[in-house]
TrEMBL record:
Record organism: Natrinema hispanicum
Superkingdom, taxonomy of origin: Archaea
InterPro entries named in the record: HVO_2523-like (IPR049701)
Protein name: Small CPxCG-related zinc finger protein
Listed NCBIfam families: HVO_2523 (NF041914)
Region (Disordered): 1-25
Amino acid sequence: MTGNGGERTAGGAEMDDTSDRGAGGPRCPHCEEPMYKRHCKYVCPHHGVIIDCSDPFR
């Protein structure tokens, strides 16, 4: 936990309330947790960034 009340993912990225969590988003291919969208990336709360907008397979 950080000083401003934010949480951190396993990859060390700080999470905040501006992300689009859960609700119909893709699931992590490693653990099946719902990922949340942050800017141009989908982030797993356990594994960090999984899908980037530059991923040609998406």
